[in-house]
Amino acid sequence: MPLTTTARLMDGTALAAEVLATAARDTTALTEQTGVAPCLATVLVGDDPGSATYVKMKQNRCAKAGIRSRHVALPATVSTAEVVDAVGRLSADPEVHGILVQHPAPPAVDERAVFEAIDPRKDVDGVTLHSYAAMSFGLEGFASCTPGGIMRLLDAYEVELAGRQAVVVGRSPILGKPVGMLLLGRDATVTYCHSRTRDLPEITRTADVLVAAVGRPELLRGGWIKPGAVVIDAGYNPGNVGDVEFDSAARRASLITPVPGGVGPMTIAVLLEQTVLAATRQLGVALASAAAGSQSTD
Amino acid sequence: MPLTTTARLMDGTALAAEVLATAARDTTALTEQTGVAPCLATVLVGDDPGSATYVKMKQNRCAKAGIRSRHVALPATVSTAEVVDAVGRLSADPEVHGILVQHPAPPAVDERAVFEAIDPRKDVDGVTLHSYAAMSFGLEGFASCTPGGIMRLLDAYEVELAGRQAVVVGRSPILGKPVGMLLLGRDATVTYCHSRTRDLPEITRTADVLVAAVGRPELLRGGWIKPGAVVIDAGYNPGNVGDVEFDSAARRASLITPVPGGVGPMTIAVLLEQTVLAATRQLGVALASAAAGSQSTD
Q: Where on the phi/psi map is residue A49: left (φ > 0), alpha (ψ -120 to 50), or beta?
């Protein structure tokens, strides 16, 4: 039986390349105009090899775009106070425009306390309470990068959101909750599902836009998807498997993100874009992309 | 035809009286233990008679409970900077434990900037970005008072929330959005509806728990309600009319809040309760009610 894929793929690799190219152009312009290159500080606590790889990847992308990076590595044995202190120094340092604390921190470190030491103006990874609330209310601030990347993908493929049913499966502070708030800010009717949701397939079948953000391999099956839906798979599980059973889902969806090559590449692209935006704001320069959104509350 | 009301009423007046009695007892205990009575600062900008009445009512309730109040009245012609300055002084004043800025401020005043001048530890009305995000993530902080009051009502009537469908109609920063986050934190599957939602009745009919928080008189009809649902009417429109058509809804619901006498009285009760809690924390005393919640993110 031949595989009849009907969905169009949402190409995150291509879109991320565009966003990165713009970030690189903006970086050049900013550096020429001010004599200062944007600078992203990365903070890595402990020696998890996966986390080290992610940080390295982000630094490499920065270098390619002309963004400087500054790295702070702390041993796994460090106290919360020491990490807070290090992040606080970066927040106060005028040469640093953006701060990324690689998640997850070792269990003994209070990650929330560390995040809150990031000045919201430098929170280019969108992890502070301030950023989350600003995102929720449509105020100026930085989106969590993966949710921000998902919105970029939806916009690039001209997905209509206003008045449509969006279902978000997952409710983590850096993915499920913020992406739901961003969709709500764009006038979608938003449902949050999670591990305690009863009859999940019945709810996902109502979704015009379905976001899987739960981190459970192939949890969502093709039969759970409304024909013609837009499917965003933000899961990234071992073996390059998403949260959606791709083959069966692609036969029902109109648009779908592949894993890898869908949401994943957008995360770093948004991180770099927001770093340039942060530098632009801190250096007092006006670029077109610096406008804040506004939201309906009715 | 006789009116056959099947729903039990959720008596907010009675529950609020209990919460206020506890707040008064805690205030007495705290005052005896520390020599300091809790103090709520109220800030009123402009001369809207409705707002003045609300503030007066809050002050009277404080006085009855033994909570001191301090009032700051500013003319409608004041600048945002002047209000921010006044609120900043209250934030810095160790004699003030809670701050309430009466909503709405005159249009020329940037209400968000004023709210952000409130120290989150004194944000007993739950209006800062910090409070909203903390509420969303189940961290220690103060709930917006009406959402907090709604949760109190649901708990008092032992409404099961985990795994149940909750629908919130409305998405304002101080009502719809936070109440949805509190319900999500209690493991309900939460849907946000609003003015752009298509086929609202179809969605409200899926709700085990329906929260009307939209400010449109009798928008939600009895036929829109799932038989046996719990209906929370947070609307308060001219003529003592809620957002729900009460008579027809009461014939379908299992539990329903009346208007007035349902959600309304809970708002002030939670405000006072949170003022006492804020004072307790700031004075370094441990009371049983000061525990923070924790949330699932899966």
A: alpha
